[in-house]
Specification:
By secondary structure, the protein is an alpha+beta fold. Helix content is about 15%, strand content about 65%. The strands form two sheets. Strands 3-4-5-6-7-8-9-10 form an eight-stranded antiparallel β-barrel. A two-stranded antiparallel sheet has the order 1-2. It is elongated, with a radius of gyration of 25 Å.
Length: about 210
């Protein structure tokens, strides 16, 4: 009898310990923690770069992108309920462009380009976030996500003349992410896609680990 009560007590304790990490409701499994990494496109920082290029053209210049990285993002969420998770998003993006001036050739009358320098602009973003898990099946889920915070923007402008010192600027700006629809599939390790707008991108793909 005592052995039976001991086994029952141990089973009950194990059940509550397990429940502290995950909740199983029918075939719905909601883990408490999740960590994700993703790569996105059409981000806020990319649109800023497009705007900068338009302004440069308006003032008689031209830019040519040499490289673009990101946004690469990482995020963590803790689920305070089966539906709502709270956490934070961090992302980084970097762009390198060559800058040219345009002028008309005196002999041919055609436009000529002269490289005047280059610049590198990096965005480091941190945003508190909330996630709303609308569908929470064992191997499939759908959700929405919102985040808002700040981006640290570092710009280094280098003149083609090596005698001219590199100009460095640092700014802090507001930034956000609003993923209207997110779809994930898998087990503890899941692949996912999100669609919306913001610094992580209008479209982002990644992997997520639930624990």
């Amino acid at each position: 009898m005592k052995k039976g009560l001991f086994v029952a007590a141990m089973a009950l304790a194990l059940m509550f310990a397990t429940d502290s990490w995950s909740q199983v409701i029918g075939k719905d499994i909601v883990t408490k923690n999740e960590f994700s990494v993703a790569y996105g496109t059409l981000s806020n920082s990319e649109w800023v770069e497009v705007f900068q290029e338009v302004v440069t053209v308006m003032f008689g210049g031209e830019t040519k992108q040499k490289s673009a990285v990101g946004p690469i993002s990482a995020e963590y969420f803790y689920r305070v309920s089966p539906v709502v998770g709270v956490g934070a998003v961090g992302s980084v993006a970097s762009f390198k462009d060559d800058v040219f001036s345009r002028s008309l050739s005196g002999t041919t009358g055609e436009a000529a380009k002269t490289k005047t320098g280059s610049y590198t602009r990096s965005y480091f973003s941190f945003m508190p976030a909330a996630k709303f898990n609308w569908l929470r099946k064992e191997h499939f889920g759908m959700y929405s996500k919102v985040a808002a915070g700040i981006s640290f923007v570092n710009t280094n402008m280098k003149d083609v003349n090596p005698a001219v010192a590199t100009e460095k600027n640092k700014d802090v700006v507001f930034n956000f992410q609003a993923s209207l629809i997110g779809i994930e599939a898998g087990g503890k390790l899941r692949g996912f896609a999100e669609f919306g707008m913001g610094e992580q991108g209008a479209i982002l793909l990644g992997i997520r680990y639930n624990f």
